[in-house]
Amino acid sequence: MTPKQNPTYHAPTVGILGGGQLGQMLIQAGIPYGIQFHVLDPDPEASCQPICAHFQTGSFKDADTVFEFGKNLDVVTIEIEHVSVDGLKRLAQHGVKVYPQPEVVALIQDKSLQKQFYAQHGLPTSDFVLVNDQDDLLSKATFPIVYKSAKDGYDGKGVQVLKHADQLPETSVFPGLLEELVDIDKELAVIVARSSTGESTTFPMVEMVFNPAANLVEELISPPHVSQQIQELGAKLAIQLAEKLEIVGLLAVEFFLNKKSNLLINEAAPRPHNSGHHTIKANAVSQFEQHIRAILGLPLGNTKAFGHAAMLNILGEPTENGPAQYSGVNPLLGIEGAFFHLYGKKQVKPYRKMGHVTLLAHSADELQQKIIQTKNLLKAHA
Amino acid sequence: MTPKQNPTYHAPTVGILGGGQLGQMLIQAGIPYGIQFHVLDPDPEASCQPICAHFQTGSFKDADTVFEFGKNLDVVTIEIEHVSVDGLKRLAQHGVKVYPQPEVVALIQDKSLQKQFYAQHGLPTSDFVLVNDQDDLLSKATFPIVYKSAKDGYDGKGVQVLKHADQLPETSVFPGLLEELVDIDKELAVIVARSSTGESTTFPMVEMVFNPAANLVEELISPPHVSQQIQELGAKLAIQLAEKLEIVGLLAVEFFLNKKSNLLINEAAPRPHNSGHHTIKANAVSQFEQHIRAILGLPLGNTKAFGHAAMLNILGEPTENGPAQYSGVNPLLGIEGAFFHLYGKKQVKPYRKMGHVTLLAHSADELQQKIIQTKNLLKAHA
């Protein structure tokens, strides 16, 4: 065995830009790897703070702050993509391993660039056209249509479905892109991990169900209610995209399955993703542990699921503000195969992601019964 | 549903006496419960320090230190039993929930009391006699025999097998007890959890294989190579012991199976235990998560294993001292179902527990093959 295949392992220092729940779960997964985590987040009460001795309050959008935070670390990664790409680039030039790479983060930050990338590489996506301003939009739109701001979208923010010309919002941020309104049958996602060694592997596809009021994932199930063929195609496209991006780390690829059974890439996130939280309980290696392996150049783990799984977000109740408490924990945990994961947020706010529930089952029917049984059981309120 | 069955959940503050690897894994398991952990340990570089914002350096053997550490917390628990019982008692009187209870910790700390407890409650254990000093020992011993100091034993320290009268050690600590030398066929263990609600449940029995040089568990497998009847008897005895002790939290019960197939209780530990580390990967609910549920009065989880599992300790190589590094990580993680868990210890020392390897398999044969394949693969050295 050559030294390259079997290097000596020194427990590394890893910096995370962002200290929210994705960072919290990344730290949890990284503990067995002996990693010393450092976290940068503007919120002194961020989810990572209680479990990170090297928690630093500051802006991950500021290049100097990012550089100073990461310059002495072995690896810097992200749990949110809206970070300073300049800061990441300076770290990479300084010799820090930055995964995902700054160029990938820059591409993903801009939905126009992201969409053009799919088109240029022959990856299936909905039709689109770039627009520079409101007049440009008016001249190119055929209603109904979707308008997306190129930058700063998150959890559906910056995305507008326009049914008529008079729905044009005055507050829209330009430039952006117009996309055909897809006749959606299902929303699906595949998380792929690509290691710094070039190895890639996908987690089983999941099906997402959205809460229309909050425009957040409300529930997901895996495996999804689609053919084996669609599942395999999703895995193939996710790997193709990861390889074409040459990303190191996780890439969560969201798809639309339209009513003609075409699988279209909607968008991608270069980090752990809400659509993979069930893997903490449902798979031997979670998305978070896989990300750790990928960015450390370790062999990727087996992504096979133990069985059927569902995940339900725990959102703050619609009118609740204040110190968080939870009802329904005892009856929930009394159900075999039901788990909760809180994000350690002290304050509850309307629709704030406070945690999630994971359900494990041996069949799709058993899973559906458990979803019905547990839905609205656990509530986050003040 | 009455309020008692469905109380509102407020993420609690939990103090842990001891900040070693058991504490590290307890924190890891407690993250989803939104717990704010506080840890007390004399070593500023203890395993818990990097993942605990409320890490406090100090002696858990000092009553005042223990009281001051815990007096404002919701729950105080332990990851080592050699703590100040007086400190625990003062906390309990102050209104802090102390689990395991101070009286249980006091009983377990004293091997003579522990052994008498088994005898008094009709629980099977090897024959024994209490001894006060060396003359007492000489007058009561029939060689070969085992001498155990009543207090401060740990990982086999304080236990001596005496083959002849002239082997009597001058350094032995008295009082203690003489035990018959059991004709051991196998060493087995069952971890039981008992909740503050009175609910009890056991993890599947494990079989332990010891490293004679280090006198530490080197490898364990689950399920063990014993009959279903013995496994059920072990579970029954573990629950009986937990209930008679009225312990809240985990109790790890170690057994001898003698060559006449009698199952004898050897000793018990009122905390997470080395014989349950595989449950992090091999079960939906680990021993650590179960301990959290037990001390918070939450419903206990399903302890069924996903399949066959083994655990191998990663001990410091016999002559190594210095900053820790590891060889063999890449080939190990390249094996499907093989995982490692490091304890974040900066310094390696001979036979120091640096981490463990977990192996998952679908059959006993596959498990044995993986044990052979991985044994001595991962080494901790300077």
Brief overview:
Two copies of one chain form a homodimer. Chain A is of the alpha+beta class and 382 residues long.
Task: Summarize the SSE layout with pairings.
Two copies of one chain form a homodimer.
Chain A: E1 13-17, H1 21-30, E2 36-41, E3 54-57, H2 63-70, E4 75-78, H3 85-93, E5 97-98, H4 102-109, H5 111-120, E6 128-131, H6 134-140, E7 145-149, E8 159-162, E9 176-180, E10 184-194, E11 200-202, E12 206-211, E13 216-222, H7 228-245, E14 249-258, E15 263-269, H8 279-282, H9 287-296, E16 308-315, E17 322-323, E18 325-327, H10 329-333, E19 338-342, E20 347-348, E21 353-361, H11 364-374, E22 379-381
Parallel strand pairs in A: 1-2, 1-4, 2-3, 4-5
Antiparallel strand pairs in A: 6-9, 7-8, 7-9, 10-11, 10-12, 10-14, 12-13, 13-16, 14-15, 16-21, 17-20, 18-22, 19-21
Helix pairs in contact in A: 1-9, 2-3, 3-4
List the chains of the largest interface with their residue counts: A-B, 52 and 52 residues
Mean pLDDT of chain A: 94
Query: What's the multimeric state?
Result: homodimer
Query: What is the number of helices of chain A?
Result: 11
Distance between the termini of chain A: 58 Å
Q: Helix share of residues of chain A? A: 25-40%
Rg of chain A, alpha carbons: 21 Å
Quick one: biggest sheet of chain A?
A: 9 strands, antiparallel
Low-confidence stretches of chain A: none
Beta-strand share of residues of chain A: 25-35%
Q: Which structural class should the secondary elements of chain A be placed in?
A: alpha+beta
How many E strands of chain A? 22
Specify the overall morphology of chain A: globular
